[in-house]
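Quick one, probably user error.
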């Protein structure tokens, strides 16, 4: 099945059975919320470029954040946050917001150990996207997603529709439906952290994460472990390879480590390529996304048992770097992905 039919910001995909569900917390006061739609076609600087309104540890009233052509304003910190993708969930957990979460959904792989205990206190609404009925039963006052597919009629509903129900929304700046508004940089990740922290009145937490990640990336860039290497980012798929392309998480990671993405000329974050293109590129190394619905080992097995693909340089040398899928997508783990790929490429023996 083509991988394009599985990516969350395009369509639904399979997720392994979720961990035990817990009942939503009760007794949390709903925050007063106001959602203001801003047309992406407005003249002037894009709304997606505006910084969050809060910088201190308190919560100025109101707080507005503008991304993907929509401005969201809250008059008090939300009390019933629901996250609809793993990237959003991990940002919330990194900011220590689990006590304000009324639900979560759609994991791609295991939650890192550092957030596991906090995650286990949050009600799991669905293995994939929840139905509208299930979502509304959690009584959310703030919905947060990594991918635009969450805010469609088939899932949570449009952002305008949700706003009319008093439910504020936030979409990662890396996941804007309009690719002209979508940002693709580590700064966009930190902007997202800052926005969410501002909405919830915990700005210093975002600043601390940003400072740590900036130090990590400076070290990765200085090492330049991927210098001179042509790398294939193999996400999923066998009939048609679904690959990391020139405008998204995989490209950011490969840029950080100094490697060249063999599909950097293709638009978007991920695209269907062809095996003929992969063979022509003959990469020096292959980064393999590891997810519950498509493991790295299954991809290695496919490459090594195909009579043509097993002639690729990277396959012959077993020049593989395995990365959890969540470290390749918008969110707080993207810097971890850069650190992991840097270490993996640096350890390749023999060096291509």
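Nope, works fine. Designed sequence:
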């Amino acid at each position: 099945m083509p991988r394009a039919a599985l990516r969350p910001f395009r369509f639904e995909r399979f997720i392994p059975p979720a961990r035990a569900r817990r009942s939503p917390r009760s007794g949390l006061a709903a925050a007063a919320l106001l959602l203001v739609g801003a047309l992406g076609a407005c003249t002037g600087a894009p709304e997606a470029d505006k910084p969050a309104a809060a910088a201190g540890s308190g919560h100025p009233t109101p707080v507005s954040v503008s991304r993907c052509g929509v401005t969201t304003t809250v008059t008090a910190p939300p009390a019933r946050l629901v996250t609809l993708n793993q990237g959003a969930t991990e940002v919330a957990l990194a900011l220590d917001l689990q006590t304000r979460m009324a639900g979560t959904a759609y994991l791609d792989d295991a939650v890192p150990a550092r957030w596991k205990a906090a995650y286990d206190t949050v009600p799991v609404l669905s293995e994939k996207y929840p139905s509208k009925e299930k979502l509304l039963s959690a009584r959310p006052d703030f919905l947060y997603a990594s991918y635009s597919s969450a805010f469609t009629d088939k899932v949570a509903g449009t952002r305008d529709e949700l706003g009319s129900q008093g439910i504020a929304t936030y979409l990662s700046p890396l996941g804007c439906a309009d690719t002209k508004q979508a940002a693709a940089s580590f700064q966009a990740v930190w902007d997202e952290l800052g926005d969410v922290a501002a909405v919830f009145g915990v700005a210093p937490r975002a600043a601390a994460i940003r400072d740590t990640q900036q130090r990590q990336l400076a070290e990765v860039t200085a090492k330049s472990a991927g210098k001179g290497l042509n790398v294939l980012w193999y996400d999923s798929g066998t009939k048609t390879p679904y690959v990391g392309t020139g405008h998204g998480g995989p490209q950011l990671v490969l840029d950080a480590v100094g490697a060249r993405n063999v599909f950097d000329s293709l638009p978007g974050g991920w695209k269907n390529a062809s095996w003929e293109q992969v063979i022509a590129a003959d990469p020096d190394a292959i980064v393999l996304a590891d997810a519950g619905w498509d493991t790295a080992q299954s991809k290695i097995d496919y490459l090594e048992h195909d009579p043509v693909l097993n002639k690729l340089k990277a396959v012959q040398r077993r020049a593989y770097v395995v990365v959890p899928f969540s470290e390749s997508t918008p969110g707080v783990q993207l810097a971890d992905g850069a650190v992991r790929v840097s270490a993996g490429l640096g350890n390749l023996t023999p060096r291509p």
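The chain has two domains: 3-184, 224-346.
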